[in-house]
TrEMBL record:
Subcellular locations according to the entry: Cell membrane
Taxonomic lineage of the native organism: Bacteria, Bacillati, Actinomycetota, Actinomycetes, Actinopolysporales
SUPFAM superfamilies: MetI-like (SSF161098)
Protein name as it appears in the record: Peptide/nickel transport system permease protein
Transmembrane segments: 21-50, 123-146, 166-188, 307-333
Domain named ABC transmembrane type-1: residues: 119-326
Topology in the lipid bilayer: Multi-pass membrane protein
Family per similarity comment: Belongs to the binding-protein-dependent transport system permease family.
Length: 341
């Protein structure tokens, strides 16, 4: 039998087996995500019910001081706030299963409309920030490892460790002070300039600074991880062999060491998704970006159960999805990794 044909068949069988293992991993994770999301949503309702914020005060505002006790009781009944929290949770869950996301009291609009208006801007900011963090970390981390022990490596490592302890909102305020108020290069906040119509040029100009802040605030851990992974890869046999054969150092780093360091890097990106979600909320608040951040704060203060539960579920789903994608990428990139879920 032709050896090439045998090798082709073996490769086909292995590829199909790998695809089946990945499919099984995805199915198991999706099944496990269902009870997790249910428990998270129930916890949101219970915590909101125990919150010191009274939804009635948020609903009335300053008019609460002029409202009679009978009017307050009537509004509380209309908003179903007089019912047990578990009964409200069941009504909300039944509506979710039927496609009704409910009505947001704090936004005075259906939850579906709030998400349709705000979620795309949050996704745009988060995706741009993550892409910038990945590219920046790969480049800077590679340079630091390549120049190990030099002043470049020491500077990058020192800055990376310093940025690890700085919250994203502090980085945002410093960026505004420097690039907006000091140099006047970029707008301070918002999605467009006052009186300007919404357009790609305006959006890009206002996106640059918050996306850069989000990306840089997430980069220190990634940069230091890439550096350490590359230093480990430099000691492996295939890299040592490439150097012994006289391969140029640039080729050794890019084609031999860096691919080995990518697997743990991909896994770390999945683990950083919760920090990305938190960072996006803080950056949106500082830059008045019209995403879900202000909706999260408003819903929490008003104990707005439907909106708060949906936003929390979306954040939880993003974390679970990031972890799943990281594991799938690890299985596909490294045949030694087992897709055991």
């Amino acid at each position: 039998m032709d050896p090439e044909r045998v090798n082709s068949r073996v490769w086909t069988v292995r590829r199909r087996s790998r695809a089946g293992a990945v499919a099984g991993l995805v199915v198991r994770r999706v099944v496990l995500a269902v009870p997790v999301l249910l428990l998270v949503s129930l916890a949101v309702f219970l915590l909101a019910a125990a919150s010191p914020f009274d939804p009635i005060h948020q609903y009335y505002g300053v008019r609460i001081f002029d409202a009679s006790a009978a009017d307050v009781a009537s509004v509380r009944e209309q908003l179903d706030l007089d019912r047990p929290v578990l009964a409200r949770f069941w009504d909300w869950l039944s509506g979710i299963l039927s496609g009704d996301l409910g009505m947001s009291r704090s936004m005075r609009a259906p939850v579906a409309d709030v998400l349709a208006r705000r979620l795309p801007w949050t996704l745009l900011l988060a995706c741009c920030g993550l892409a910038l963090a990945v590219v920046f970390s790969l480049v800077i981390g590679t340079v630091a490892a390549w120049r190990q022990g030099g002043w470049t490596d020491r500077l990058i490592t020192a800055v990376g460790h310093a940025l690890e302890g700085i919250p994203p909102f502090v980085v945002a305020l410093l960026a505004i002070a420097l690039f907006s108020l000091g140099l006047g290069w970029l707008p301070v906040a918002g999605l467009t300039d006052a009186g300007s119509s919404l357009g790609p040029a305006q959006v890009i100009e206002h996106l640059v600074l918050p996306a850069a802040v989000l990306g840089i605030s997430q980069s220190p851990w990634l940069v230091l991880h890439v550096r350490q992974s590359l230093l480990t890869a430099f000691t492996e046999d295939h890299v040592t062999g490439a150097r012994a054969r006289g391969v140029r150092e640039r080729v050794v780093v890019a084609r031999h060491a860096l691919p080995t360091a990518l697997l743990p890097f991909v896994t770390l990106i999945g683990a950083r998704i919760p920090e990305l979600v938190t960072g996006a909320v803080l950056v949106e608040e500082v830059f008045s970006w019209p995403g879900v951040a202000s909706a999260v704060v408003t819903a929490a203060r008003a104990a707005d159960y439907p909106l708060l539960a949906i936003l929390t579920l979306l954040a939880t789903a993003a974390v679970l999805l990031g972890s799943l994608l990281a594991d799938v990428a690890a299985v596909l990139l490294d045949p030694r990794v087992s897709a055991d879920g």
